[in-house]
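Private note to self, pasted from the team thread so I don't lose it. Backbone tokens:
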């Protein structure tokens, strides 16, 4: 990678790499690891789906889930996207987190298939359930609703990047690493040793 070939804005550069992965046939290129931590510093990571790059990395979830509770108490996160196509790449992002607006959550909710809306409304993510059958009964009860509104406990978060690192594999192990660091309203771009 040549720094002069990269976009001055890391979110635009991330969008370009994401588009390249899509065009190359990468399965589920929007899959993203989100790492959070409790106020005591106990880390947790899980896979989510990147749903937007406006001002940051947006994803949606049950706000009462473990990740939702951790982000409410400690609004900082790190994210990783990883692709094997068109070349082996990863992007790491870290920064503060803000909730998406209710309007944005409503808009995304309406795009989801009816079955996934029912599942999300019936399931209280991360909570203990007696058994799979009771959960399936709650989902079945939701089928009575033709236009299920978004539950108040379901919304999204946006990671607002302070640091973004682009990594690209090199066959000889001298991998390319370029880091963007926020400097006020601008970005400092620097090469890192692999």
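Design output:
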């Amino acid at each position: 990678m040549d720094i002069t070939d990269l976009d001055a804005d890391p979110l635009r550069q991330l969008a370009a790499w994401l588009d390249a992965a899509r065009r190359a046939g990468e399965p589920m290129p929007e899959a993203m690891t989100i790492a959070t931590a409790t106020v005591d510093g106990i880390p947790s990571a899980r896979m989510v789906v990147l749903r937007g790059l406006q001002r940051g990395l947006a994803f949606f979830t049950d706000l009462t889930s473990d990740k939702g509770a951790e982000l409410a108490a400690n609004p900082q996160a790190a994210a990783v996207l990883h692709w094997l196509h068109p070349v082996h790449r990863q992007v790491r992002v870290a920064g503060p987190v803000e909730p998406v607006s209710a309007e944005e959550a409503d808009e995304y909710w309406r795009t989801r298939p009816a079955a996934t809306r029912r599942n999300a409304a019936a399931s209280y993510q991360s909570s203990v359930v007696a058994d799979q059958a009771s959960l399936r009964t709650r989902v079945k009860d939701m089928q009575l609703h033709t236009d299920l509104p978004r539950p108040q406990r379901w919304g999204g978060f946006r990671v607002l990047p302070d640091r973004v690192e682009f990594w690209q594999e090199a066959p000889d192990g001298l991998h390319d690493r370029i880091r963007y660091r926020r400097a006020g309203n601008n970005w400092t771009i620097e090469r890192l040793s692999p």
